[in-house]
């Protein structure tokens, strides 16, 4: 199986090509091809993962893509170890579930085939990303997942906001990619290679160290900040919810957004050696986590709550990695992928039933959609960290990773509390109580089997996926992923208890406020209006960016263009006018003082003025003037 | 040279065979145009195509069989010449194919159109091989003369006439500047041969421990002359007006083939002839490259006309290419050459899309590209691909080209320039993505479907193959280029 692992991304690639070239007119066939391909990837991915489970060797296969001797040598290949195996499982499982789910969710969409083509493109790129054995190939697929994400966010482009959101996502993440590619260039000049093996051995043997390593690490991390929606580049992810909900589940919850986490985890050697860079990573992670969780407390759009929750949980993972908890971060990556995908798909099922995203128009839906409600509840319990669901085990490892850094421990627990609270606020407002919009409630119905079966499967995974991290397992998660650096965190019974208690109290508060009604949310809101408004406006990030960057930038562009066109134009027109005036003066002079012989000169001048005005060639003089001015400036600079 | 040496004579002419071939057939196409009836636009076009293909094959053949200098060291056919001749001829072929529709709509002077393109191409081929400054100057003039006329080819259109006139005036000024620089160099070194200039400049440096102000002056003038040909900021002012006014195939020709030839000459003059004065020009080029990337990309954002947008974008692209020039080594020369190749296909392809679009709609406004994906899925896909390659998104050739250029610059210690390049490439993504978004995510109703003519489809397919092939399998080709760069720098 491992020898043919390179086939895993090939299947969806073939599917995409087949849909685009041949079957785009046949809806069912296109979907079928796409799902068949991802099923093959799923089987391959799982069997590869199983065969490397507990196997400490790293399997590498590569060929020379570009071999130019010392100046540039880029081999392209794949690398399979425990981390890759885990990512393969996550990506193929969620991709398969989402593609099946989309059969029902996107059933009435006119661009069904195109949707599946995009999904296949994304799956291919994402699988390449996790299989790559070098930074170069990783960057290439990194850009491709960004492209697929752009296309899928803007999929319903009839909505202006969707098209805008796609572009915002593309460009914001691309800002982070600047750092990524700069990091690649630095690593290449420092190590002479971009393969993981080469770079990490150079780092381990201190060929690359000190300030350059720190800067390279921070540059790589900038890429992760963009892709994984960390502060200050997190603004694109909530807007990305304009895309179809299954896309949000696949790309913006479970897979693409964790690419940044994966990048940091993969570059473990770099961040272990560059501890200052690692501290930046940890701080960015926790700041993002706290900020996003607090915004999630007050949102009323079901998908936006989940989006902020995703940002917050990604911050968790990033923070854990920054603090050296590489197993904790990647373990949470896996469990989170399952329960967050489930939450999104559940939200999709609700939206499918009531045709609104606003939780204020929902309520009491448990009666109408039992499967959705129960699976959603399971996922909510998992994310809240309730024993013995998957989130309990991974969250415990994250808390354990913060031990020794009291600020981080406190903030982590605070986030755990907020997470449990907003998740159950969401659950109670959506599924329990009285319907707040009777009309919508009456038309609600449980989703078809194609949608509920993926929910059930993911619900099972949300429960059990944490168990492979059981602390007393011989070959548990921590000995499989990152076996090169054996890392067996102690199971902290006390901290596990505390974390679970914090989660339960969050649930309890939500229960009292939104189920029992013993605390009135309105009164809480009234007592903290300022905070509430700030949170509702997401700390004014978008507004600040608009004032600080976007508007001045546009002004600059226009100014520049104005200079390019009008300043010169103006000057030229001025010149033209002078010429004309001159010719008028000439005529007057001629007619008054000079006889016919001189008339010729005046006529020439006037003629030239007319040509100047007519063709606006006066501008040419100014162009020439700029050329000469540039010559002088260059001369002066030398 | 006492006795007439027949073997030497034969060897000399063998080396210049592609130019001769092209020149003779260019005259034939011109003659044909005068003799033939006015209503046969296809014939001279077909002849021109066969001629270029013939020249391409001849160039490959000469590249395989002959090697070395000719005509007393004024003209050379080395590996670099092969690379750039193929690039130039590739650009000429695509121009010729995409001109068929445009020429078909001309009322008069159809045949001369191709004749002029071919004559201009002869000048470009000479530019690629010239190793002596006066030969180079004459080659530049030869290539530009044809372009002046071609830019104004839509005589009835005011914009086109204006474009031609502007181009002539500014071209004349820049030629004078270049020639003035050459004169200064001659005054300083006593030669116009690049290899000899290299030694003489080295001698000046060794004997005085620096350069006299006249040297700087000469450098600035020569650089400005090249700056004009390359539309490098701040010598780019002519480009948007001329690009907008000229017939679109000619715009493509100007922006690709002519620049490729100028880049080859640039490599010869700066990497060989003025190599010993590198410390005097590297900073200058870095500054101009940064200026080009900033001015080109920033100004492109506010354009509403697609040809003007592409004009500013190609100002920026030249900036990116010259980022490679700050690394005055094999890396730099390879990066520049590969970028030129990637730029050839992507930019040519983008302009061909513009041609195809305006042939059916008569519009060059970006706003009219709204919903193109629905009106012509194929055309939109092609255009998006070329724009993505210009942005530098993998797996297109443009990505590897940018990567290579930046890598060369980082290696040479110009990190700040790379940061400028990366930042401006985000800006570039913004305006390219605006067009893609208009095509794929339209607002409002979209108009009827658009069909693309067969010849343009062919040109688009060739460009697409180029963009993808050199992006996915660059290995052999880049190796070849690198070899050419090594030979150039080794002075072989």
From the structure above, extract its key features:
heterodimer; A: 638 residues; mainly alpha; 27 helices; globular; B: two-stranded antiparallel ribbon
Q: Secondary-structure blueprint of this entry?
A:
The complex is a heterodimer of chains A (638) and B (492).
Chain A: H1 7-23, H2 27-52, E1 59-67, E2 73-80, H3 82-105, H4 112-131, H5 135-153, H6 160-191, H7 196-204, H8 210-227, H9 236-239, H10 245-254, H11 259-266, H12 268-273, H13 275-296, H14 302-322, H15 326-354, H16 370-384, H17 390-402, H18 406-431, H19 438-443, H20 449-464, H21 477-480, H22 493-516, H23 521-527, H24 529-536, H25 541-593, H26 596-615, H27 618-637
Antiparallel strand pairs in A: 1-2
Helix pairs in contact in A: 1-2, 1-4, 2-3, 2-4, 3-4, 3-10, 3-15, 3-20, 4-5, 5-6, 6-8, 8-11, 8-13, 10-15, 11-14, 13-14, 13-18, 14-15, 14-18, 15-16, 15-17, 15-20, 16-18, 16-20, 17-18, 17-22, 18-22, 25-26, 25-27
Chain B: H1 6-15, H2 17-35, H3 41-65, E1 68-70, E2 75-77, H4 79-104, H5 110-129, H6 133-151, H7 158-189, H8 194-208, H9 213-230, H10 238-245, H11 248-273, H12 278-301, H13 306-323, H14 330-361, H15 372-375, H16 377-391, H17 397-411, H18 415-440, H19 454-472, H20 475-490
Antiparallel strand pairs in B: 1-2
Helix pairs in contact in B: 2-3, 2-5, 3-4, 3-5, 4-5, 4-11, 4-14, 4-19, 4-20, 5-6, 5-11, 6-7, 6-11, 7-8, 7-9, 7-10, 8-11, 10-11, 10-13, 11-14, 12-13, 12-18, 13-14, 13-17, 14-16, 14-17, 14-19, 14-20, 16-18, 16-19, 17-18, 17-19
């Amino acid at each position: 199986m491992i020898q043919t692992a390179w086939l895993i991304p090939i299947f969806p690639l073939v599917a995409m090509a087949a849909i685009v070239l041949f079957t785009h007119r046949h809806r069912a066939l296109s979907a079928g091809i796409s799902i068949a391909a991802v099923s093959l990837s799923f089987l391959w991915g799982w069997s590869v993962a199983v065969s490397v489970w507990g196997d400490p060797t790293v399997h590498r296969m590569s060929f020379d893509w570009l071999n130019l001797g010392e100046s540039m040598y880029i081999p392209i290949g794949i690398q399979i170890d425990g981390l890759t195996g885990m990512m393969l499982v996550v990506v193929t499982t969620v991709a398969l579930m989402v593609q099946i789910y989309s059969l029902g969710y996107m059933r009435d969409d006119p661009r069904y085939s195109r949707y599946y083509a995009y999904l296949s493109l994304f799956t291919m790129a994402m699988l390449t990303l996790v299989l790559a054995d070098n930074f170069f190939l990783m960057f290439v697929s990194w850009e491709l997942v960004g492209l697929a994400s752009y296309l899928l966010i803007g999929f319903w482009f009839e909505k202006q906001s969707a098209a805008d959101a796609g572009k915002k996502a593309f460009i914001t993440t691309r800002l982070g990619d600047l750092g990524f590619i700069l990091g690649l260039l630095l690593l290449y000049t420092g190590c002479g290679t971009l393969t993981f093996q080469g770079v990490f051995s150079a780092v381990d043997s201190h060929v690359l160290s000190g300030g350059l390593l720190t800067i390279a690490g921070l540059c790589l991390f900038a890429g992760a900040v963009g892709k994984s929606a960390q502060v200050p580049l997190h603004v694109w992810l909530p807007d990305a919810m304009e895309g179809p909900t299954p896309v949000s589940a696949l790309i913006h919850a479970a897979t693409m957004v964790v690419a940044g986490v994966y990048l940091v985890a993969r570059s473990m050697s770099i961040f272990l050696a560059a501890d200052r860079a690692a501290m930046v990573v940890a701080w960015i992670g926790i700041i993002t986590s706290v900020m996003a969780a607090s915004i999630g407390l007050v949102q009323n759009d079901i998908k936006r709550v989940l989006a902020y929750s995703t940002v917050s949980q990604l911050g968790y993972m990033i923070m854990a990695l920054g603090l050296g908890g590489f197993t904790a971060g990647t373990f949470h990556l896996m469990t989170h992928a399952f329960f967050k995908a489930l939450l999104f798909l559940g939200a999709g099922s609700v939206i499918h039933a009531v045709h609104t995203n606003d939780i204020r128009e929902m309520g009491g839906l448990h009666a109408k959609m039992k499967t959705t409600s129960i699976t959603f509840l399971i996922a909510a319990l998992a994310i809240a960290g309730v024993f013995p669901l998957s989130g309990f085990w991974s969250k415990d490892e994250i808390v354990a990773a913060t031990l020794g850094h009291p600020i981080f421990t406190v903030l982590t627990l605070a986030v755990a509390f907020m997470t449990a609270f907003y998740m159950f606020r969401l659950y109670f407002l959506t599924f329990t109580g009285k319907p707040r919009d009777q009309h919508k409630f009456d038309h609600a119905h449980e989703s078809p089997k194609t949608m509920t079966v993926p929910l059930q499967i993911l619900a099972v995974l949300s429960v059990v996926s944490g168990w492979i991290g059981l602390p007393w397992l011989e070959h548990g998660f921590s000995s499989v992923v990152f076996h090169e650096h054996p890392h067996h965190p102690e199971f902290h019974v006390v901290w596990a208890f505390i974390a679970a208690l914090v989660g339960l109290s969050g649930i309890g508060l939500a229960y009292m406020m939104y189920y029992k009604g013993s605390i009135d949310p309105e009164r809480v809101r009234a007592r903290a209006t300022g905070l509430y408004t700030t949170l509702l406006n997401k700390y004014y990030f978008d507004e600040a960016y608009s004032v600080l960057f976007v508007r001045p930038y546009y002004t600059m562009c226009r100014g520049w263009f104005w200079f390019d066109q009008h300043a010169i134009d103006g000057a030229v027109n001025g010149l033209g006018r002078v010429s004309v005036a001159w010719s008028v003066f000439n005529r007057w002079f001629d007619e008054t003082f000079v006889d016919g012989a001189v008339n010729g000169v005046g006529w020439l001048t006037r003629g030239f003025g007319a040509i100047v005005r007519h063709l606006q060639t006066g501008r040419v003089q100014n162009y020439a003037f700029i050329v000469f001015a540039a010559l002088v400036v260059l001369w002066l600079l030398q | 040279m006492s006795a007439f040496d027949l073997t030497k004579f034969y060897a000399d002419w063998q080396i210049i065979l592609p130019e001769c071939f092209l020149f003779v057939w260019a005259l034939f196409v011109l003659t044909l145009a005068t003799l033939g009836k006015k209503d046969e636009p296809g014939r001279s076009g077909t002849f021109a195509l066969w001629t270029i293909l013939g020249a391409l094959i001849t160039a490959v053949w000469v590249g395989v069989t002959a090697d070395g200098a000719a005509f007393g060291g004024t003209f050379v056919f080395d590996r670099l010449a092969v690379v750039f001749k193929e690039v130039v001829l590739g650009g000429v072929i695509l121009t010729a194919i995409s001109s068929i529709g445009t020429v078909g709509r001309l009322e008069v002077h159809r045949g001369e159109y191709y004749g002029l393109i071919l004559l201009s191409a002869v000048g470009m081929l000479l530019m690629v091989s010239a190793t002596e400054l006066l030969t180079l100057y004459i080659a530049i003039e030869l290539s530009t003369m044809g372009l002046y006329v071609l830019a104004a080819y839509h005589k009835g259109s005011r914009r086109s006439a204006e474009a031609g006139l502007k181009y002539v005036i500014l071209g004349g000024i820049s030629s004078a500047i270049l020639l003035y620089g050459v004169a200064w160099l001659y005054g300083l070194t006593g030669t116009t041969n690049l290899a000899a200039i290299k030694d003489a400049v080295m001698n000046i440096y060794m004997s005085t421990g620096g350069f006299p102000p006249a040297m700087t002056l000469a450098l600035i003038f020569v650089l400005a002359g090249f700056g004009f040909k390359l539309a490098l900021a701040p010598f780019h002012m002519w480009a948007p007006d001329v690009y907008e006014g000229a017939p679109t195939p000619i715009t493509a020709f100007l922006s690709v083939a002519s620049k490729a030839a100028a880049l080859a000459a640039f490599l010869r003059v700066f990497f060989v002839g003025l190599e010993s004065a590198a410390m005097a020009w590297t900073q200058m080029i870095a500054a101009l490259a940064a200026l080009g990337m900033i001015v080109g990309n920033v100004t492109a954002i506010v354009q509403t006309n697609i040809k003007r947008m592409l004009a500013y974008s190609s100002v920026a692209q030249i900036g990116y290419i010259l980022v490679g020039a700050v690394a005055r080594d094999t890396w730099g020369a390879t990066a520049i050459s590969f970028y030129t190749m990637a730029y050839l296909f992507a930019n040519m392809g983008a302009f061909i899309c513009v041609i195809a679009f305006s042939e059916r709609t008569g519009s060059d406004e970006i706003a009219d590209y709204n919903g193109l994906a629905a009106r012509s899925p194929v055309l939109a896909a092609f255009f998006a691909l070329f724009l993505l390659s210009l942005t530098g998104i993998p797996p297109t050739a443009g990505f590897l080209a940018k990567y290579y250029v930046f890598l060369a610059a980082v290696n040479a210690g110009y990190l700040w320039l790379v940061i400028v390049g990366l930042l401006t490439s985000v800006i570039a993504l913004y305006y390219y993505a605006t067009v893609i978004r208009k095509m794929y995510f339209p607002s409002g109703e979209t108009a009827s479907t658009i069909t693309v003519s067969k010849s343009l489809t062919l040109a688009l397919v060739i460009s697409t193959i180029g963009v993808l092939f050199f992006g996915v399998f660059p290995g052999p080709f880049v190796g070849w280029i690198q070899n050419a760069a090594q030979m150039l720098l080794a002075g072989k």
